[in-house]
Automatic annotation (TrEMBL):
Ranges of compositional bias, category Basic and acidic residues: 308-318
Keywords assigned: Oxidoreductase
Domain NADPH-dependent reductive aminase-like C-terminal per the UniProt entry, residue ranges: 180-305
Lineage: Bacteria, Bacillati, Actinomycetota, Actinomycetes, Micrococcales
Entry keyword annotation includes Chaperone: no
Domain 6-phosphogluconate dehydrogenase NADP-binding: from-to ranges: 22-138
Superkingdom in the source lineage: Bacteria
Family: Belongs to the HIBADH-related family.
Organism the protein comes from: Actinotalea fermentans
Entries under InterPro entries matching the protein: 6-PGluconate_DH-like_C_sf (IPR008927), 6PGD_dom2 (IPR013328), 6PGDH_NADP-bd (IPR006115), HIBADH-related (IPR015815), HIBADH-related_NP60_sf (IPR051265), NAD(P)-bd_dom_sf (IPR036291), RedAm-like_C (IPR048666)
Annotated protein name in UniProt: 6-phosphogluconate dehydrogenase
Length: 331
């Protein structure tokens, strides 16, 4: 699979003296409404449809034309944004539309999915003559149409180019990440994982200090000071992961295991959920047991890549009677 992360090249506006595209939006939940609103505010002729018609009403004030049927919405559209709940809904709706109504439109599929679902939906669409471009909107609704917007696109590069003017109305950066239709979703879920693990780490730490009467607000500046170290740390981790080298010059997993034992014990004393500290401690313990105690933390990527090897080691420890990690924490 090829995943590119090349930002779209800016086109010279003077070289695009053509008529602005007509755009359609299918689905007017919070995100679809934000997309339709951004398109209309950018001055594009925008037609929208939603299963529940009342949700379309606020958009009329922005000049959005509300269509009675999905076919009516897409018939004149050069670009259609499908912003529905999921891919099953998107497929069912696209299948219900007369193919001749969709023939002139590039369909930008903005429903969240797994990479596999994105590939299947794109294949499904291609088989039916629907020109589908996969998309992943990476910002919350208030940022759509602003310079802080970020949307990832993948699939047929010609469809990416053909939808340029409509995509530009969403603001910020439209980033083409490769011709694999699953690439946008892959990077979407990977970014979500970074975001949710970060948020959950903060929440767990807030619960831990809260158990001793320290408020989350008081802890916040200290939490932020750790987060500020992360950009440089991630750069080093990325270098190590790609190089397959895990030098323990700055940090050693054996040392980090001791620190993570302290996190686990403190959370345990506070009566907190132990799944997160157990995971961290067990990863460090597994790395040490595998002989990587002198390596840096990036070595953990090998354990994350091959959970069976980690579990085999845990089972080995259990049968040898040399268990250093409680069995409940190795799952
Ligand atoms: N909201 C965000 O911040 C955000 C951020 C990034 C990505 N996304 C993605 O954007 C997509 C849309 O999200 P959303 O926030 O707008 O809300 P959502 O609840 O995921 O989607 C709501 C839309 O799907 C429609 N829908 C659901 N089932 C349908 C069906 N069986 N037939 C026809 N239409 C159906 C709804 O129509 P009705 O109004 O009739 O129910 C509504 O238009 C999702 O895939 C989401 O993951 C959202």
């Amino acid at each position: 699979m090829r995943v590119e992360t090349v930002p779209e090249t800016e086109e010279d506006p003077m070289s695009r003296q053509h008529t602005p595209p007509t755009v359609a939006v299918l689905g007017l939940g919070p995100m679809g409404s934000a997309v339709a609103s951004a398109l209309a505010r950018a001055g594009l002729a925008t037609v929208a449809w939603n299963r529940t018609p009342s949700r379309a009403e606020p958009l009329r004030d922005l000049g959005v034309v509300v269509a009675a049927t999905p076919d009516d919405a897409v018939r004149a559209a050069d670009v259609t944004f499908a912003v529905l709940r999921d891919h099953a809904t998107t497929r069912a709706l696209l299948a219900s539309i007369d193919p001749s109504a969709l023939a002139g439109s590039v369909v930008v599929n903005a429903a969240s999915a797994t990479p596999m679902q994105a590939r299947e939906t794109t294949r499904w669409a291609t088989d039916r003559g629907i020109r589908l471009l996969a998309a992943a909107i990476m910002v919350p609704t208030p940022l759509v149409g602003t310079e802080d917007a970020l949307v990832l696109y993948s699939g047929d590069p010609d469809l990416f180019s053909a939808s340029h003017d409509a995509r530009a109305a969403l603001g910020g950066e439209g980033r083409y990440v490769g011709d694999d239709p699953g690439a946008a979703s892959l990077l979407d879920v990977a970014m979500l994982e970074v975001f949710f693990t970060g948020m959950t780490g903060f929440l767990h730490a807030a619960a831990m200090v809260g158990a001793s009467g320290v408020s989350a607000a008081r802890f916040l500046p200290l939490a932020r000071s750790m987060v500020e170290i992360l950009p440089a740390t991630l750069t080093e981790l990325a270098r190590d992961v790609d190089a397959g080298e895990h030098p323990g010059a700055q940090d050693r997993i054996a040392m980090e295991l001791a620190a993570l034992e302290h996190v686990h014990a403190t959370a345990s004393d506070a009566g907190l959920d132990l799944r997160l500290p157990s995971l961290l401690r067990d990863l460090a313990a597994s790395a040490v047991e595998a002989g990587h105690g002198d390596d840096g933390w990036s070595r953990v990527v090998d354990l994350l890549r091959d959970p069976r090897a980690r579990d085999d080691r845990a089972r080995g420890r259990a049968t040898d009677g040399q268990l250093t990690v409680p069995p409940s924490s190795v799952q």
